[in-house]
Amino acid sequence: MKKYINLFLLAGTLSVATSCKLDLLDNPNAVTFSNADPNFLLNRIEVDFAAFFNGVSDPGLRLTRMLNQGSSLYQNAYSPQNLDGTWTTAYAGILTDVKTLIPIAESANLHIHAGAARMMRAYVLMTLVDMFGDVPNSKALDAAEFNPAVDKGADVYAAALKDLDDALASFGKTSLGTPTDLFFKASTDSWIRAANSLKLKLLLNRRLVDAAGSKSGIDALVSGNRLISTNAQNLVFRYGSNLANPDNRHPRYAGQYSATGGGDYQSNSYMFEFIQGKSMPDPRLRYYFYRQVLANSKDVNEIRCINQQLPAHYPVGTVFCFPSQVGYWGRDHLDSQGIPPDGLRRTAWGVYPAGGRFDNNQAAPVALGVGAGGAGLHPILMGSFVDFMLAESALILGTAGNPKAYLESGVRKSMADVRTYSLATSEGSVITAWETAQKINYAADVDAYVAEVLKLYDAAPTPTEKLDVIIKEYWLAAHGNGIEAYNFYRRTGSPRNQQPALEANPGEFIRSFFYPSVYANRNSTAVQKTSVATQVFWDTNPKGFIK
Amino acid sequence: MRISYLLCLLVLTAFGTGAVAQDRTITGKVTAADDGSPLPGVSVLLEGTSTGTTTNNAGEYALAVPNGSGTLVFSFVGFAAQATPIDNRTVINVKMAPDSKLLTEVVVTAQGIVREKRALGFAVTTVDRKMVEQRPEADLARVLQGKVPGVNITSTGGISGSGTNITIRGYSSISGSVQPLWVVDGVPFNSATNSRGNFQEGGTVAASRFLDIDPNNIESMSVLKGLAATVLYGDQGRNGVILVTTKNGNGKMRPATVTLTQSLFNNKIASMPRFQDNWGGGFQNNPGFFFSNWGERFDRVSVVGTGLHPYASLQNASIRNQFPEFLNVTGYPYKLFEGPENFFKTGLISNSNLNLSGATERIGYNASVGYTNEQGFVENNTLKRLNVGVGFNAKVSKKATLITSFNFSNTDQKSPPINAGTGNNTLNGFPSVFANVFFTPRSVDLMGLPFETPLDNRSVYFRSGNDIPNPRWITKYYSTTGVTDRFFGTATLNVDLMPNLVLTYRSGVDTYNEQQEYKFPKGGVDFQTGGYFTSNIKNTILNNDVILAYNKPLSDRLTVAGRVGANLRNDRFRIDRINSVNQLTFGLMRHNNFTDNVASNFTQEETRTGIYGDVTVDYGNYLYLNLAGRNDWTSTVEKENRRIFYPSGSVSFVPTAAFPSLASTTLNFLKFRAGIGTSAGFPTPYNTRSVLNQVARGFMDPAGTVITTQSVDNVLGNPNLKPELQTELEAGVEAKLLNNRLNVDLTVYRRETRNLITSTPIDPATGYTSTTINIGKLRNSGIELGVNGTVLRAGDFAWDVTLNYDRNVPLVVELSDALKEVVVAGFTNLGNFAIAGRPFNVIKGIAALRDANGNRIVGGNGQYLADPVIRELGDPNPKFRTTLINSVSWKGFTLSAQMDYRHGGAIYSATAGTLLGRGVVEDTDFDRDNTYILPGVKQDGQPNDIQITASDVGFNVLYFGGMDEFRVWDGSTIRLREASLSYNIPAKVLQKTFFKGATLILNGSNLWFKALYFPPSINFDTDVLSLGVGNGFGFDYLTGPSSRRLGGTIKLTF
Fold this sequence. Notes:
Strand content of chain A: under 5%
CATH topology of the largest domain in chain B: Maltoporin, Chain A
Largest sheet of chain A: 2 strands, antiparallel
Shape of chain B: globular
Number of strands of chain B: 54
Number of domains of chain B: 2
Number of strands of chain A: 6
Number of helices of chain A: 18
Number of helices of chain B: 11
Helix content of chain A: 40-55%
Strand content of chain B: over 45%
Oligomer: heterodimer
Radius of gyration of chain A: 26 Å
CATH architecture of the largest domain in chain B: Beta Barrel
Structural class of chain B: mainly beta
CATH superfamily of the largest domain in chain B: TonB-dependent receptor, beta-barrel domain
Strand order of the largest sheet of chain A: 1-2
Structural class of chain A: mainly alpha
Largest interface: A-B, 118 and 124 residues
């Protein structure tokens, strides 16, 4: 008896002890860290960076009336989960990959990789502050700390500034290899200009809390003379027209150009500025907006407001319901009506920047693949933006240069960029054919437009009103970039006299967003804001400054 | 398979070793008097001595006795003891009859150990095969609903072949699997639900793989609920064990019998809402072709606008022009069309089963064939299943028996895609047949309008933007299919090494190949250019057990039994996927008819090995002690956390046997039991090490160059991950009263899980979005009660009643400093949460903002403001569940009915929210011409006085206003789960035929239900699980209309 038990135990123990099949811990389905490739990592950072830009730009576009805001109250416009994706892309996407890439790149003397990663990190950090205020940074990205506490917004800005300086130092070193680089094809000069221009953006944003620091910093940048100035130096992310595997189309295009249409509503008040804001239509109008119909609907089931009076709280002359009578079909600010079947009627994104159609009065509905097929771009930081920022800085801070000259340069660069990019797409022939048929001289139109802008600038009696002229042109040039628009709107209050919300009492304007629910609900140190009227550190403008 | 090799060696060595002869040896076989099956474990004792043995698995014994006469006493609990004088015989065969006085049952427990029920210190529920066969459900688990206290079974929906969630004694883990272990014929059986995606990616339609078992081929089932019962199964048994013995695997010797059964049922939708017929589609009382039904009254207008046909207004000219016949239609009516009422059909379910069994002197056999052909209540939903099996029980030698069973199944399931929706098309762009059906505006002619374009087969529907997929187009062209070929077989060899020592070696394999195909031809709304996604899944379990069992009566009063065993289990899973998009030619579903293909594959392997032991002491047939333990090693955690030991113990005490004076006709039998059990839960593989996520075609630059990307995966690997620990205390009492007419079985338990393996979302600011960690403590406390009795017995008439009741209270006792709450399932802003101090799985979501006094606050537009912080909206755990089964028989007739009641448990229902918010059901047939003021206060604190319209109330505020609070209801439900009428044709009638027996049964399932607190016109069935099989529940996302089945069966025995 006993010998059987002993034998049995021996057999059992032996088989367990010698079983080497328990070493099944490495996931056979994924790449391990020892196989990390700095080129592939940087590629992902750049692609995620574009996604991050798009995610943050969206609410900025809507709040500044560059796109429709589809909620009736500010408080309900962005619930915490609306920005979960942005938070996740920023931290779990870009920032952790940057943190992984930098040591790998530096140990291999891949300094463009390291510099580009640092610059994108700086952009992400400052943008997070712009959106949310205080955010985690020094305690973030630590696998041992599940509840990273926030840093003061000013400190995160300082960290971003240091990153930009470090990036500039990296770009100054000799690199052993070059990345694929979707932005500048590894041109260090372009990267240096982009990093300097981001410094300009950062310093200007801080001007309300540190005017002297901003002035000296910006003066140094101006004298250094390595800011984005030509079209090729623009910090843009370019999309293609491939439908799947991968879908590399501009996200705005992908959301709108399909058999059922739909997607974003354009903003009535923004379109109005291009159609009737000046004595002539804006030369960029047909590039920015594509009409699917050439006449306004008469069906209340399609546009409920057509029979309605101008709301009592709208000043007389404010655009309402329609920006014109020729088919520009958008929505008023904070219009929360349900969606009627107008997906193939409403005005769509045009060829710039989404890679859609140029409006040559064809009035065909949007469809999959038409226009430039989605080969658009994200205007992340343009030469024109740099000029507008320098104009503001020169006017308000007294930095070097003539604000009026910067203003003119900014408008002209924007006009040129829009046309240059659009002509290079597959829609180029449509544009030239239209111009020929209509005998349009783009350059002459731009000249006339610039003259009118400068006249307005000269006529503006006070610096505040001159600034309003500058910022309004910045706003019109910034189509597709809600980040800059949201910042300058809070910083300067311009463009002033925006279309009011449809609701008479929409609540206080969003001076910063609720923290995303992925942070507020998961991080035990998080304290959700009680109101969207909470201001970020650089916004010292009074309560109720903007509506 | 080193271990199996060693074990084989061991088995071979064991052969040939015999008992040492004494003076003379008596041999024989003990069988049951009623069916002739062998009785293992019968105590054989020479009267007045301690010389004794027990019978082996074949019912045989050999006992050396001194010369001279004597008497052998055969005793076995549940059977009347027999004393037989030996005289001069050397072979003594005995037939034992059940002892009607004792009425004790024998049950199969862990690792196939057969034990008398009175000896068990823990709760085991056996399910008679009569309770599962000839049912309208092909899914064995769904048949069990309500029949076992403490076992909670929820279907993901009423679609044929959809998944089923089973939990026993609550949810004992946050992220680990809570599904019980299935053991079929002694071998673990994979019961996974292989969802291709999550609940937003069509995941709820995937079948749970116990679907491969034919309920008509079941011999017996027992459910082991507590840890004291399941410890021998290791961590796999921690969620309870469902032991299934098929007719092929039961190893019984039976006279030759052929049984033929044929069932036929119809299958209808049970949860059809009651619609209102007065108001049509539109918004703000304006008629129109909208999603919503907030238009005008039918008796006030007769056309929409100018009366154009909806297809004449289609904005897409290439679709519009394919319907020239509609372009000039005028006066298209605005009237009631009954859409959803006619969308569903009546399916037919046919179930055939042939079973053949018999025995010769040395071999018993059983063979079965079953075929099920089930049509759903939606077009193109079918389930076909073929089961073929055979089993043998062979006496290999005097000392060895071999029991084998081999089963093959082919399950072929087909369904239109089903995906979560909130009442506005479908979530995540994955199509769903139910996303847009139920709220079809009353003025839309769902069944009359063409659903496809005549030239290029595109979906077409009433909205001018054509942005809703036509549900009829979906049922015709879209399908998701799963075809599974499965083999599972076992071989068990029992060898009597010595009179009291039995060696068992059991080896089993369960392997299946599941071919899933998602077919989405181009022309739809969600995958406009078409999609074709195929997955080939292969799963194999190899399981080996070797058990050495010793059983010895030490004296008249004391018997000791013990066993030690070792187990090795290896699981391999592989999935190969090809995803293709952009179809070239309409309809052809081949990957080479698509321009873009992406292939991927995934493999997973897991090995567990364990040794276990079990000792039972039986003193005087009234006091029993059981101690068991198991030590496991597993491959899913790092080396230092790999080994874990967990013991269990239980006692059973029968006062009515210990003190016979206690027993009376009032109290026939009384037993107290108590047990403590522990178990471990191991994490799934590959959670301990972080990886990079590589995408080969991550992006393409405008020039067409493909860019490969790598990024740090969002899941943080945790090298310190260790098994979670469960401890359970249970106690119970069993009694038989009133001349055995009333049986009571009561269990209370408390289970705690510590170091919960929690795959938790974490703040992305950590650099990761989720990780798997050990935190906190979860406690399930509960009570299970089973009562059955005979209310009346008079002559041929009998009325039996069974009442089951269970209540489980799950509490998250603590989490950790690191995490204040965990999203168990759903979305971060609407889902099931684990929060310390709260019931497990509470529903949190978006609520209206309230002031300090609890008043809801309205904004300037008279509508509620949303609270930026999500709030707890309800506890989805039912307070209790109870089942009442009444059975009345008279002569050959039996009428029985099962009623279930679920008390409480909140449900977020998109179905109810949508039907109310879109204004289609009777409950929305109110005065819509009026304006309404929502109760609440304005932002300045003054009472709200802002008037809003009926559409605004129903759509913009309550049910589509983004506030989940208004879509949560109490899920209390009363239900007539089953009813049947059967008739056994009396033997007298059959005497002259060649039939041995014939039975006719009429039965139906889910015949009636009422969710007590839902608006009545929703007709909502709470038996739905839109999150799919897993740890979340209490959510309905328009995925699960339920089914009602009615039909009959004829069963013939030859």
